[in-house]
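Sample pair:
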Amino acid sequence: MARDLYEFGPFRLDRMGRRLLRDGQPVSLSPKAFDALVVLVEHHGTRQSREELVRQIWPDTTVGEDNLKQCIAVLRSALEDNSRQPNYIATLPGYGYSFVAEVRTKASAAPEQSLPAPSPAKTKTTKRWMVLGVSALILLATLLLAGASVRRRLIRQREVKTLAVLPFQPLTAQPEDEYLGIGLTDAIITKLGKAPNLRVRTIDEVSGYSGADIDAAKVGRELAVRALLKGTIQREGEQVRMKVHLLDTVSGKELWSDETAASVEDMFVLEDRVVAEVERALSAQPPIRNNSSQTPSTVDPLARENYMKGRFFWSKRTKDGFTTAIRFFQQAIERDPKYAEAYAGIADSYALLGFYGYLIPVESYPKAKQAALQALAINRDLPEPHVSLLIVATDYEWDWAAAEREFRAAVELNPNSAEAYQAHGYLLLALGRPDAAEREVQKALELDPLSPAINATLAWVHYLGRDYEGCLQQCRRTLDLFPDFVAAVQVSGLALIQQNKSQLAELELAKAEKLSPDNPLNSLLQVEILAAEDRSQSSGKDRGNDLSTPKRAKLEQILQKHQANVSLAYYVAGAYASLGRSDEAFAALDQALVARSNWLIYLRLDPRFDSLRQDPRFVELLKKVGI
């Protein structure tokens, strides 16, 4: 059976086998990026409008053009293409894209072989075998056609569906109902997210959609989903009443609805019923589950309630939110010591407290690891503890092999884990592979396009890859979606500093200070801006001498203020390095090493330390970190 093959440059695209090879080696692409490449290659040499590409790549889903832009970015990264001087994908401003490379089309079919003429003595025998052979071929063709039909049905069933589960709305003003609604939403998202052909938006993405008057079509466009699950929840004593509706965001058709009630003790039954009905309505493939999962009936009802409160506060993604969440998770464990999900919640919280710098590494990461291992000892089916262990192995233990194992385990249990792909991107940055990191973060962004953290992570990847213009573009995209996300403003400032655009960096700093007045990174950013101004006026050993006395005094005041803060030691080192004060930079880096700062994993790529790279102390430091 023939299979369409396309060749361009060193690449071979196998459309039927859904593979892209470069010099015979497979190139990893997300499903939608592969679909986009097929459409572009099949129409090579022609102009493809954005609207037409979106229609062909997402035939049954309403999505925005940002999804297409992300797919194109993934493809350019995989093909090592340049948008300004494209070899493969050219941007047509105001219109769309075109595949401009020469494409060779081939068909892989079995070669024909000539057969010798039969002798007269064998003619009768040959005829009998020919009859049997023709019959066999007819039977084989029938089976192949039937098999193709079955395969087509299976492919249709495996087509990726997109779904948003909106926060269940409490019908009363009681805080317990709000906790219950967020907890129920989070639990359903987590369970549905494990289905291999279902893309479910995260709790962070949907948290802003609340209220009774939800416009399904509008939400579908904004979240790029075809289906929407929404409902209400009300607690009456020990009973929980729930109404739920599953809607098609394009047609507005109701796909399934239910109204039911259960005791607080049987909340798991409600969750599993909703999950099963949604999987059935969307023809989703349920995940393969081992027999180690905790039986719902074994969870104490009050433990379950405390767990839901913990998830409610965890979803706020603040220092106070994480610490309050840990308290509720611990209360859940006190009620039910075998509650694996509560241990996983503690691991999540401590891992992120360390990641965001709210706790010093030695106080956060070991506790995250301990809780994650306890969760897996109870239930090895949970993917979240593996993500926590991936973060710990990358950021704190600097054990790259262990980190890779945890990533594989996480995506095997939940192939739709955006957090796993994001964390894997950080691991690849530590290993000095920014191009590979970009591909992983692009996958995370395809799974969770409205995550401010993942959007900003992509900007950080561009920064470490020395693609400052790409970094600034991604920062702008992030801030278009999330105007108050200060990390994107700070990364934008760093990129502008590397471009020697101090005045524009000052404007970004002013925005950051307005958004987060108490953020210490803002003042250290100020030091780097002053250093950039100094570099534009002097060179070499004279750096720092051309600063005015008030500026120099301000600079020294900032550095002295943060010098003793081990959480900021890496950034203090970067500030000293930018000023050409190498001894003080290495002293701060040694301080970061003792504290096992998670920022040290970026030392190999970070341009702020270029002035130190020839120093033997820098080489020795890289060895100690293992990079």
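The domain at 161-288 is CATH 3.40.50.10610 (Rossmann fold).
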